[in-house]
Amino acid sequence: MIGTDTISRVIGQDVYDQSGEKIGSAAEVYLDDETGQPEWVTVRTGLFGTKESFVPIRNADLTDEGVRVPVSKSQVKDAPKIDTDGHLSPQEEQELYRYYGMGSGTDTAQTATTESTTDMSTTGMATTGMATTGMTDTATTGAGYTDTGTAGTGMTDAPGTVGRDVSGPTTDNAMTRSEERLNVGTTSQEVGRARLRKYVVTENVTETVPVSREEVRVEREPITDANIGNAMDGPAISEEEHEVVLHAETPVVEKEAVPVERVRLDKTTVTEQAQVTEGLRKEEIEVDDAGTERRI
C-alpha cells in the first residue's frame, strides 16, 4: 500500500503491471483532495516516454524493483487520453473509474465543485477535484514537497516534468539511462581484546640425589707379636663394651624463585579476502516502434 509518506519514492520509479511486465516510469502522483491519499499515477509510455497515461495507485505496491499496479499493460496503453495539467475534473475522474472497473471510487473521491481555491488540506494539496503532488501554493506540503508546484526530488517548475529522467518540456529528445555502481571500502572496528594474566600452579618434581651412610663391619685379626701388647693389656677375663658412632646422609631440599623468561602481547596485521554481495539497480530502455517493442 502506497501512502503520502512514500510518494517521493514513487516518482521516477519503473511501473510494472499485475503480471510483472514493465509498463513505463512514474511521472506524477495525484491525491484525493478529501482523503489526501494517492489515487492515480501518471505513467510515461511509448517511444522516449512521451505518452502519459493515468493508472490507479490506490492498491499498488512499492517494491525494490519499482511500483506494481493492479492492472494490465494493455489496459494502460488503451486508457482514456487525459491531459496531465495538474488537475482532474470530476468528469475525467469518473471516466477513469469506469474504464478501470472501479465504479465511482471511494465515497470521498468524487468532488462536486470545480472552482479553484488556495486552501491547503492536511497533505498540502489543493482542495479541488484530484490534485497532483505539487499544486502551486505558498506553503510547504506535509509530505515533504516544496511550493514550486512539483513533486519528488530535482523537479522543475513545469508541471509533469521529472528533470533528467525522461524527455519533456525542459529536456531534449534524448533519454538518460542511469545505473547504480558499487563502491566498497573498509572501516576499522573493535572485534575483541586479548590480555595476559599470571597465576600460580604447583607441579611435582622428582630428582635423584646420592646419599651415603655408615655401616658396622666386624674385623677379626689374629694375635701377633705386633699386637700382643694390646691384647694382654687389662685383666685376663673381664666384661667390656665398645661403641662406634654411625653416620648417614639425608636429602636436604631448598626452593628459590628465579626469573626464566619475559612474556608480552604484540599485534600483527593479517590481510584476507572478503566477498561483498549487493543488489544494484539499473535502468533499461525500451523502444516502442509502431507496436513493436524491443529493448536496447
Question: What are the defining features of this structure?
Answer:
296 residues; mainly beta; Photosynthetic Reaction Center, Chain H, domain 2; 8-stranded mixed beta sheet; two-stranded antiparallel sheet; 8% helix; 15% strand
Furnish the topology, listing elements before pairings.
Layout: H1 7-10, E1 14-16, E2 22-32, E3 38-45, E4 51-56, E5 61-62, E6 67-68, H2 73-77, E7 87-88, H3 90-99, E8 130-132, H4 228-231, E9 286-289, E10 292-295
Q: How would you sum up this structure, described in words?
A:
Residues 150-161 have a biased composition (Low complexity). Residues 175-287 form the DUF2382 domain. InterPro entries: Bac_photo_RC_H_C, DUF2382, PRC-brl_dom, PRC_barrel-like_sf, Stress_Response_Assoc. Strands 1, 2, 3, 4, 5, 6, 7 and 8 form an eight-stranded mixed beta sheet that branches. The chain has a domain at 4-173: Alpha-Beta Complex (Photosynthetic Reaction Center, Chain H, domain 2). It is rod-shaped, with a radius of gyration of 51 Å. It has helices spanning 7-10, 73-77, 90-99, 228-231; strands at residues 14-16, 22-32, 38-45, 51-56, 61-62, 67-68, 87-88, 130-132, 286-289, 292-295. Mean pLDDT is 76; it is low at 106-168. With 296 residues, the protein is mainly β.
